[in-house]
Amino acid sequence: MSNVGKIKIKAIADLQATIRINVEPDPPPTTEKSTPKQKKAGRARVASTAKKIQPKAEACPIIVGTPFKRSSKKTPLPGQMRIDSFFKSAVKNYKVNMVPNSASKTVDPPLDKRKENSRRRKRLFEESTTTFSASTDKRDAKPPEKRVQPSRRAKGKENAITESDFGDIDGVTHYFLTHFHADHYIGLTKKFCYPLYVSPTTARLVQTFIKVDTTYIHEIEVDQTLVVNGVQVTALEANHCPGALMFFFKLSSGECILHTGDFRGSADMESLPIFWNHANIDLLYLDTTYMNKNYDFCHQSESVDRAVYLVRAFIEKNASKRILIVCGSYVIGKEKIWLALAKEFTMKVWTESNRSTAVRCLKWPDLDSVLTEDPREANLHVVTMGKISYPSLVDYFTLFEDQYDMLLGIRPSGWEKNSKPSYGKRISTIGIEYSEHSSYKELERFVRFLKPKRVISTVPVGRNLFVTGDVPTQWYKYEGRASMLSTGYQPSISAFLATPKRVATFSSDIEMFLSPVQENVSKGSKDKIPDHVSIMSSTMEESFRNESEIPVKNEPLGPESFPNSEIVAGNNAMESEIPYVEMDIKNETLDPGAVLIPCVPMEDKIQSTECNVIEVQKGEVVLVSRLASDAADDWLL
DNA sequence: GCGATCAGAT
DNA sequence: CACATCTGATCGC
């Protein structure tokens, strides 16, 4: 619950030091499980993989489950970099416009080739890195003319994507699945026999629904880094459905590739240390589902509020009636809406058995606590989205008309932007604008923030599913330095302070990630909230003095009180302003108002600057957060 | 017979 | 339209 409106990220030093670098084992031999064909392919791959993996174990430090104490930073482990040294090199790299070195060329397919292939892809399984040529999208590895299964394919639709396009792809040895939505795991079957990297949540779903042999499933958690065949793979929260990840690949050549999977971009993502530690992203695979100016969604918490508001109004207006509420959903996704309704109106929830199974896989206690097996004891039913139409609901209502007088159907969807509620005598439906993909603005901001060298959309446009969208080049080919290191960047914290919080609504046990920026709210609150906060003096807390929500200690502690204060904020604070970074400080006791000294980049030098502890929760410091929306507005001019 | 795959529907 | 399935038909081991 406390994660709503903010994300739990680790300070850069924390990330650097706690980075769990594990060397994954080779894909197990596939002998018994595979068909003859697979066997052959599998063996070949194992052989080549084994060759590659060996030297890597030497080159990379292996720190498995090493508990990290910030104070131990004095001796950075090999391969780790302190924030200050990072920024020095990063700035330098940027200036010389470094290109990936040639070291990887010998083993890796050329990037251009992958690009070529990737241009034809819909987003499905995730692209890996060149060292092990992992893409899970068959089209990436097999040009159309090489495809087998002519019998059905030949019948016309050249552009159609079928399951034969996915799954076992020639030359691909490692697979990354961002999340458990059906259009992303096409081709994944029980017989799958390659390493598959997924979040723990997705792992449970894959095991439960597809019954992939657990031998092949490798879990990677949010913010965790694994080394796979010499490629550093870091999982990032995607802010999509439960368990959804983005994958950040750093090749041995230094080349960085981010695959967003399906995601909803958020200003919080701009605080992710990995982006600050890797200012140069060579290639971005981007979910451009709503890359159209017409799509401008409200924050999810607003959607939830609206759903609650409309349902309350409906209930009050029909106070004498027995009302069945039916909410549309996918197998996973949209839980926040129905959970909020269940809690707000103290309703039990019944859902179809497949979703019920899926929900159990989520290990989200709040969801479990409201679910019931018996539809007749639940006033809230969660059903597949397709059933939330008037004719379907009429049918549905007949099943329960002995128990209810009215039925209210709810459609939470990005497409419900301007839909009007339809109130009938017995059957009513309302649409709730609710998106788990980025809005146009969120996309633009995300791309501008990352300023990758190249962007490839993963979402097809039009009829030809092999053609994906064109991301506006001005989003990333603009003058100046990468936005993360931009000298012109002047973030403020006002939007963060104005972020509406729905603290009580969501589970505390599952880290739900909500993008907190709500532009109009922050604008409307400008009177109350300081536009900028000086962090150069220890009198910073003055800025908050009138902000009742921000606890302030009168006597700010000096930096000498924090011997470990080199846990630096990953930000580019310039001059007198600093973006927030939420820091996770478990081993220190800090009070609100305390002053920390983060190192921040100033041109090519590192300078220290002070920042305030704004909020403390459970021994964790919530402080300097992300880049504020005001700054983004400037970019978007 | 059943899992995998496909086309089409919502 | 389509966000992501879902269904019913067909293929093929």
Automatic annotation (TrEMBL):
UniProt keyword annotation of Nucleus present: yes
Family annotation (InterPro entries): DRMBL, Metallo-B-lactamas, RibonucZ/Hydroxyglut_hydro
Pfam families: DRMBL (PF07522), Lactamase_B_2 (PF12706)
Annotated keywords: DNA damage, DNA repair, Nucleus
SUPFAM superfamilies for this protein: Metallo-hydrolase/oxidoreductase
A GO BP entry: RNA 3'-end processing
Gene3D superfamilies with a match to the protein in the record: 3.40.50.12650, Ribonuclease Z/Hydroxyacylglutathione hydrolase-like
Keyword field contains Hydrolase: no
Region (Disordered): 20-56, 101-160
Family under the similarity heading: Belongs to the DNA repair metallo-beta-lactamase (DRMBL) family.
Name used for this protein in its record: GG12882
Biological source species: Drosophila erecta (Fruit fly)
